[in-house]
Here is the input.
Amino acid sequence: MEYKLRTENLGLHYGDFCALKDVNISIRPQAITAIIGPSGCGKSTLLRCFNRMNELIAGVRTSGRILLDGRAVHDGAAGLTQLRKRVGMVFQRPNPFPLSVFDNVAYGPRVHGMHKGADLEAAVEKALRATALWDALKDKLRAPALGLPAEQQQRLCISRLAAVEPEVLLMDEPCSALDPIATEHIEELMRELARRYTIVIVTHNMQQAARVSSETGFMLLGELVEFGLTTAIFKNPSDKRTEDYVTGRYG
Amino acid sequence: MRKEKVIAGVLAALALTAISALAVIASFIFKEGLPIIAKVGLAEFIFSGNWHPLDGEFGILPMIVGSLAVTAGAMVIGVVFGLGCAVLLTQFCPPRIVSVIKPSIELLAGIPSVVYGFMGVAILVPLIREHLGGPGLSVLASSVVLGVMVLPTVTSISVDALQAVPRAYFEGSVALGATVWQTTHMVTLRAARSGIVAAVILGMGRAVGETMAVIMVAGNTLDLPHSILDPVRTLTSNIALEMGYAAGDHRKALFATAVVLLAIIMVLNSIALAVSRRLPAGRQAGRAAKAAAR
Here is the structure.
């Protein structure tokens, strides 16, 4: 089995605070992996290790290794933009730029050096089709993205990522700012996208993890307590702490 | 409840005093200035280059051109350096350095304008005279001095505008593999546009209205300038230089100069406001920021 993403004894400190402790996790390609756990357990921090977003915060130290397609993700500036092109991120609150729909989706391709109008138009159409937004927005490409409803904004953010053709999608609570119907639509979209992309989703919502993911990891206080098939984690957890969490005894 | 009403009434009176002061100043200037404009004729007053107040010739074209030229030059300098500084401080500096540098730039605003003028006369004017030619007292000297004077305004308001751009835009952009500079010019500056336009308007207002420093370095001749090395007189300098001895129509003509100055400032402000309104992105960023704050 070739894993898409793997961590080896990954540790992370914010100053003196230990946010991740010896995390070993292996993520399958073209599948949805969920990471669950109570607030502050380090699940978002783990997600942000995969595209090195934690480095934006002063005083962060990491240890251990992260492997993408079996090759170590390096420290330092080398390969950072390339890594983030391959490993994209969807945020908790939809964060389209204050630009037009078109410019939002064309942003990534432009940043990575695509400037020809026809190429950009093709890339934008393809990316909007990937999130089933094309039919709704093809006549509104010049409209400001911030005028769209929340669900379309989040879809647009996913399109914006799809336009740079990443391999991995990291989703940090992508539905927490959405209503239940929009959440259902985004979950459908995730299942659709999982045919082509490797998806890692961090969620507060255990039902969501159970609905969409094939594998689930449970984190607590910076540790990956248990990791395995989603059905096993929810129906037959091997660790007492996991059982307490998924049965709603705390968290 | 009664007490509340009294306090509200007192505050309203205080606020009205400030507003009525503005109204009194404006109406006084118009009352003194408009008759002479009517007498000379608006076109003659604005488009004639002959200013011989003692012979009854009142044409302020050179001063209008002087004010506009000096202001334009000041804005080029002020915006290039001020905005550059603001981008550096907000996007590329650690916050601790910003907290030292920004207040020191704002301190520049506290230096009296006569000091700027003095520095201009003592250092800048001789430099221009020796290296670029001309009398030294010139459009260029005034533009540089005014440009430095508007720096604190432009910088500090631009910094505020850039800092108000939601962090989520920055994260979203770098997460797509963009560099900090790509993020800055493709997202952050656009999101902050309306605030930056406001910074430019305020800077421009200061440049048009500045008098003392300009009198000291502009040369104050009555001819139309033909190059940036020629001396000029601005509208404000004209009023300040001649008010001391003017009487009769001459005095009224100086009030009329003030009317024109007011009109120019109002036109410049309206243009800048209209431009900032035509930038939908910036406005929406503001709305989004407000929504996020809620």
